[in-house]
Structures are given as structure tokens and as C-alpha cells.
Amino acid sequence: MLKLAVLVSGGGTNLQAILDAIDSGAITNAKVEVVISNNPGAYALTRAKNHGVKGVCISPRQYRDREAFHEALLGELRASQADLVVLAGFLVAIPPSIVEAYPNRIVNIHPSLIPSFCGVGYYGLKVHEGALQRGVKVTGATVHFVDTGTDTGPIILQKAVEVKEGDTPEILQRRVMEQAEWVILPQAIDLIANDKITVKDGKVWIRA
Predict the structure, then answer these.
(1) Record's InterPro entries (predicted)?
(2) Which pTM was predicted?
(3) C-alpha torsion sign, points 95, 100, 101, 107
(4) CA distance readout (Å), 132 to 12, 64, 107, 136
(5) Which residue, 122, 152, 154, is CA-closest to 139?
(6) C-alpha angle 156/93/171, rounded to 5°?
(7) Which position among 51, 70, 110, 128 bears the catalytic label?
């Protein structure tokens, strides 16, 4: 049974997609062990509580410096005995110390087709604003392993979403979540939980 630690900063819609997929059997051999947020007001913590899952707030403001915050976050991950760390809208950069502690065991969902509209500065609505400003016809979402770069780790799954005339960043964000993020994040977790993924030479290989 793969133990998940889900890190979230806000509402937790991707967390809900994971919980729902576990309940429905779309994700097998996995369970959410803990939900961690840097934001004490995150609705994701309420979602966790409502589902009987441990929720923890670890905010940088609680610690003297960033290093102490990182140590506390790593300590909570280790205490949970998590096998896989899932970044589901976590707006805090993961430090090398945590990446190195969980090599190819941290996954992130990014709301674009990497390598487009990713990297430093591209998060939340900024991703969709960038896509609309560039005039792309297709966008989407990407699940990837996390390395020490920003959105540079091996890609696990991607799903395309049509950009429509009249889209605003908010409308596009919602479509990408519904049609891509909530679909491929559970799929990726299920693949990992059932040992169907191998990382070789910086690329992900999926077994049928």
C-alpha cells in the first residue's frame, strides 16, 4: 500500500480528485496518509478532516528561517512514512534537501504542457494568462517528477485541453483542472502505486 503525503496551499481540488479516485477504485494500492499545508486557512485541511485524513499546517511564519521550515517539513514527511509526496497546488519551492530525500518520489501537477509556460514565475493564474497572451490553441496539464529545478523533472503524463475563443484566465484554469489535472494526477498515482513506472536516463517509461 503506497502511502501518500499530499502538499497543498489552497482549496485542494486536486486533493479531492485523489481522494475521490481512491474511493472509486480508480487509484488502487494507495492511501492518503497526511495532508500538509503551508496555509492555516487552506480549505484542503478541511477536506482532509472531512475524509478522516490527518491534516497538518507547517507555515514558514512559524519558524525562524527557511532552513528551519524545511527541516520541519521534512520531519513531518518522514514521520508520516510517506512513500510518495504529491504536490497538489503547493506554492512553496521544494528545497534540494527534500528532493534528495525522496528521489523520484515527489510528483507535481503543473497546469500547462511542459515545457510551455513553466518554470520560475509560472504558477496559478499566471500560467493561463501566459497561454492566452501567447495565443496558443491548445494547453493542458503535466504530471512530472520533481527534481532540483523548477518544472524540469521527468514527465509522467500530459493531457491537452482546447483553448476557446473568449476564454479568460479563470475560465481556462477551470477547464484545465476539470479536463486534465483531475484526470492525470490520479492516473499517475495509480501507475506509481502499481509499480508501472520506471525512470531511466531522465525519461519515464510506463509498463502496460
Answers:
(1) Formyl_transf_N (IPR002376), Formyl_transf_N_sf (IPR036477), GART (IPR004607)
(2) 0.95
(3) positive
(4) 25, 40, 26, 7
(5) 122
(6) 65
(7) 110
DSSP class of 65? S
Q: Is 110 tagged catalytic?
A: yes
66 is in an annotated binding site: yes
38 labelled as ligand-binding?
no
Q: Which amino acid would we find at residue 166?
A: G
Give the three-state DSSP class for 107: strand
Here the cell at position 189 is: 498515482
Long-range contacts of 15-21 (CB under 8 A, 24+ apart): 15/44, 15/47, 15/48, 15/88, 16/47, 17/181, 17/182, 17/185, 17/186, 18/86, 18/88, 18/185, 18/186, 18/189, 19/47, 19/51, 19/53, 21/186, 21/189, 21/190
Number of C-alpha atoms within 13 angstroms, CB side, residue 151? 21
* Cis before 40 (ω within 30): no
SS3 82: coil
Residue 24 reports pLDDT greater than 90: yes
- At 170, the amino acid letter reads E
